[in-house]
Amino acid sequence: QQNLNADQLARLARVIMMICDKAMTGVKKAQIADPRLEAWQLEKAIAEIQAGDVKPGVNTLSELASRNPESLNIQLQYARGLSRLDSDLPTAIKQWRVLSAKVKPGSEAWLECKYNIALLLKQNQQPDEAMRLLKYLKLTSDGSKKSRWHVELDSLLDELERAQQ
């Protein structure tokens, strides 16, 4: 498996966007209610964000999230998209917090939520609050399980502690 650089990922995302546009055009021309339309909208929004067109992607994800409040995948994608918008970190933090309350504590999705909350707090000039959250998670989590998110959480805590010294 070959790793792609940012430029290659952006070009690939633009191809995905074109495919999604063609698929959505076909569904709309057929004038039928097709549940796949939302799936194509979701894929296009993810591709837009990957290509650097963050705002339109997040706008679409916002619409999809409000229409599908129980879809964990859409809610996660929306939170991930919001995290890429530097202009509205408090909204991103809020979305991650709402989402973390909906998923099972200790699950991969929950850990991803907590990591992103802490990261965004740090980016929003609230490192002390981020550190409190991370220290609480370290004290209360099962240290025997080391998922990707446990490693990320530990790394972020180490970074914040080094910055305080």
Q: Report the order of strands and helices.
A: HHHHHHHH
Helix % is over 70%
Mean pLDDT metric: 85
Biggest sheet features: none
Report, as a whole number of angstroms, the end-to-end distance. 40 Å
Strand content: under 5%
Question: Which spans of ≥5 residues are poorly predicted at pLDDT below 50?
Answer: none
Which structural class matches the secondary elements?
Answer: mainly alpha
**Contiguous helical run count:** 8
Give the overall silhouette: globular
- Taking Cα atoms only, what radius of gyration do you get, to the nearest Å? 18 Å
Description:
With 165 residues, this protein is mainly alpha-helical. Helices cover 78% and strands 0% of the residues. Helix 3 (54-67) packs antiparallel against helix 4 (72-84) and helix 6 packs antiparallel against helix 7 (127-140). The radius of gyration is 18 Å and the shape is globular. The mean pLDDT is 85.
Secondary structure: elements and pairs:
Layout: H1 6-29, H2 36-51, H3 54-67, H4 72-84, H5 89-102, H6 108-123, H7 127-140, H8 148-164
